[in-house]
Amino acid sequence: MTAIETSGLTKTYGDLVAVDDLNLSVEKGEVFGFLGPNGAGKSTTINMLLDLTRPSAGSATVLGYDAQTEADAISPRVGVLPEGFDIYPRLSGRRHVEFAIETKDADNDPDAIIERVGLSADDADRPAGDYSKGMCQRLATGMALVGDPDLLIMDEPSSGLDPHGIREMQDLVRAEAERGTTVFFSSHILQHVEAVCDRVGVLNDGELVAVDTIEGLREDIGGGATMELTLVEAAAGLRETAASIAGITDVVASDHALECTVTDPAAKADLVIALDDAGATIEDVRIDDVSLETLFTALTNGDESEAATETETASATASESGVAR
Ligand SMILES: Nc1ncnc2c1ncn2[C@@H]1O[C@H](COP(=O)(O)OP(=O)(O)OP(=O)(O)O)[C@@H](O)[C@H]1O
């Protein structure tokens, strides 16, 4: 069963097409990254899945239910980490979690949830109005986990988190996926998505421009990787050996270094084996994949320098459709 399925899902605001004919399929148990630059239409899509915004055209199912006509059947089974979570400043963190438990008629232990999202028992007793941004994000994550949802929808989950918090968030997403939860994870930060997602969909100007694994996207944009090998021997004598391997292109030999462009990931091991068979002694190997900034830029026609100035970066994955050109 698919956890999320959209068919021609479209949202317009006047002349602006925020989401344009979106056909997306997310499998049950998958961690799916939904990527795109600011204004791409990610939140609008999520809002339509949650029936917070009505589509202008098309339809969506969530956990097998129609997102608009059967929203009541969906909400108890979905945990949502919204973008810009509003707290009740005077209520403690624990009370927020208790409130979520009561609302969902769930039987979770609030303290276990609080511990799971990395808030201390003391913090849980403080008014949430005194929380830092990252603490608010942890609290919101805890509230999303209430009821052990089948689908976790997270809009920019790393927002406000420090590097330690980001790692904890990634561990939590993986643990949820192992439990069988489908995670739909929106972000414009490629690195975070790459760390946890099975596949990614990339949205640009409301259109889905790619669905694949990040590795698949790298291959599709033809970027390949660069592999640099340092040899004991002079590299020139081994250039032909390297160039003869399928999936290796553009071999440059200088002194004791061979620099090769790798278009097929399997060629990396083939290259090492072939050089070894040819009697070469490899001292060091360095592999540079296509940077995530380059990937994101290629997919969204963005400005690479702009992408690189993001504190972190974005990424994308997905299935059979690959990169749409
Ligand atoms: N209520 C609204 N009225 C008019 N335009 C809207 C409304 N909501 C969203 N939009 C527009 O729809 C487009 C998509 O916005 P959306 O918030 O979905 O993008 P996003 O990908 O989530 O961006 P971000 O990464 O910045 O959160 C934007 O151009 C936005 O200005």
UniProtKB/TrEMBL annotation:
Residues 303-325 are annotated as: Disordered. Pfam families: ABC_tran. Residues 310-325 have a biased composition (Low complexity). Residues 4-230 form the ABC transporter domain. Keywords: ATP-binding, Nucleotide-binding, Transport. InterPro entries: AAA+_ATPase, ABC_transporter-like_ATP-bd, P-loop_NTPase. GO terms for molecular function: ATP binding; ATP hydrolysis activity. CDD domains: ABC_DR_subfamily_A (cd03230). Belongs to the ABC transporter superfamily. This is ABC transporter-like protein. It comes from Haloterrigena salina JCM 13891.
